[in-house]
């Protein structure tokens, strides 16, 4: 039961960090016209950390995290591609 609660808390904390890194990416890349690699590096490091932590909890939760990170990464990639082509 403790592991489940910890996993749920970790899930929401990582959703918040995903959102924050997406906001940072949009600010840096769109407003400042700098590269959006900071966003991708942030997502990659937090995804690896999350997977290391979650393999201690359960495989289902780690798959949910992986899907979340892949989704946010794809969104960021298409957002970056859209602004590069303009």
Automatic annotation (TrEMBL):
Record field: transmembrane: 6-29, 36-52, 58-78
Domain of life assignment: Bacteria
Keyword annotations: Membrane, Transmembrane, Transmembrane helix
Protein name as it appears in the record: Uncharacterized protein
Originating species: Virgibacillus halodenitrificans (Bacillus halodenitrificans)
């Amino acid at each position: 039961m403790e592991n489940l609660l910890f996993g749920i808390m970790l899930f929401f904390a990582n959703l918040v960090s995903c959102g924050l890194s997406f906001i940072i990416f949009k600010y840096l890349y769109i407003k400042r016209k700098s590269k959006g690699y900071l966003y991708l590096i942030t997502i990659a490091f937090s995804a690896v950390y999350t997977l290391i932590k979650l393999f201690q909890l359960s495989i289902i939760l780690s798959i949910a995290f992986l899907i979340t990170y892949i989704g946010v990464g794809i969104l960021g990639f298409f957002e970056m591609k859209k602004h590069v082509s303009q």
